[in-house]
Design goal:
elongated; 15 helices; Arc Repressor Mutant, subunit A
């Protein structure tokens, strides 16, 4: 039985002056020291788990936010929603790759270069090159010998891609191959159209609600978010919950309204708040308990009786013996 290959790091290189990075200025101005601290916590999570990225969609996103909540335990007024807003701000400031963030990944060239340098001595690593940001030249600058496993894998992958293209060209010279290719392309197009049609039907099933939410938040939802809204509707989430959550988002005025709105919806789903009745149960205040003691009428009668007793006592004391 083979040994498990280590993925994360036991240590990671921390830049001197990390907190003075100009890209952290906006997060610091909006959230104070919490902004840079959350960024450092995210680096710790990335390097310690996947090594060069954080899965930040679905359960991965929720798990990351709860890890950040554990990191910030003891700090006052730090909620899951606040932490999600900090992450959105860090992305907006360019500390994480924006396009990969939209695909559900938190990563950057800084993180990947740190991982590349820290793993130069490893002989085997599984890298998802679809989200790898470093070029061959950038890696060779840190590893001139070209012996690093990641660099060799990167070059090998490129060479295989070229070989596949050459094979495809040679096949096109055959009439039979061209026919097979046309058949495959037609099947792919048909499958793609069918899938697109299904997604469009799902998204446009309640386009009125989507449009209303976009107007309230003054932003546009991407295709994946529209599918997420449809999933929540299919699960039974009522229109009132969507609108109330949009109202809360607008009142807080976050930098990324769509991301903040998505976090609140996920919290509602997690807490089982799907209908207007669920919201009322959550917002219903505890009944006020009556104060212990005599009522105002009883207190007034008591005062009068006490006053009469005092007068009688005073008169009795005033009579000479």
């Amino acid at each position: 039985m083979g040994r498990n290959r280590k993925v994360g790091l036991d240590w990671w290189p921390r830049d001197i002056g990390l907190y003075r990075d100009p890209k952290l200025r906006a997060a610091r101005q909006k959230f104070g020291v919490l902004g840079p601290y959350v960024y450092e916590c995210l680096l710790d999570i990335a390097y310690g788990d996947k090594g060069y990225y954080i899965a930040y969609s679905g359960e991965g996103r929720e798990d990351t936010l709860w890890q950040l909540r554990e990191y910030t335990a003891g700090l006052e007024n730090v909620t899951i929603e606040t932490l999600a807003a900090v992450v959105d701000q860090l992305v907006a400031s360019g500390l994480f790759h924006a396009a990969l963030y939209e695909r559900g990944f938190l990563t950057s060239k800084r993180i990947q270069m740190g991982y590349f340098i820290a793993t130069l001595g490893r002989n085997a690593q599984q890298i998802n090159f679809d989200i790898w940001l470093l070029s061959e030249d950038e890696m060779r600058e840190k590893n001139p010998s070209g012996k690093a496993f990641i660099l060799r894998s990167f070059i090998s992958r490129q060479e295989k891609g070229i070989s596949r293209q050459e094979i495809g060209i040679s096949r096109q010279e055959s009439t039979q191959s061209r026919e097979e290719q046309r058949t495959e392309e037609q099947r792919t197009v048909e499958d793609s159209r069918a899938e697109q049609t299904r997604e469009e039907k799902a998204v446009t099933a309640d386009s009125g609600l989507t449009t209303e939410l976009e107007e309230k938040l003054n932003c546009k939802f991407d295709h994946n978010f529209c599918l997420e809204l449809r999933r929540l509707q299919n699960k039974g989430m009522h229109r009132e919950v969507f609108l109330d959550t949009a109202r809360q988002t607008a009142e807080n005025a976050p930098r990324n309204p769509a991301g903040y709105f998505r976090t609140l919806l996920q919290n509602c789903e997690r807490d089982g708040i799907l209908t207007a009745e669920d919201m009322q149960k959550r917002a219903k205040p505890a009944p006020v308990q009556p104060a212990i003691g005599p009522s105002s009428e009883q207190l007034s009668a008591f005062d009068r009786e006490w006053y009469e007793r005092v007068k009688r006592y005073t008169r009795e004391k005033a009579v000479p013996s």
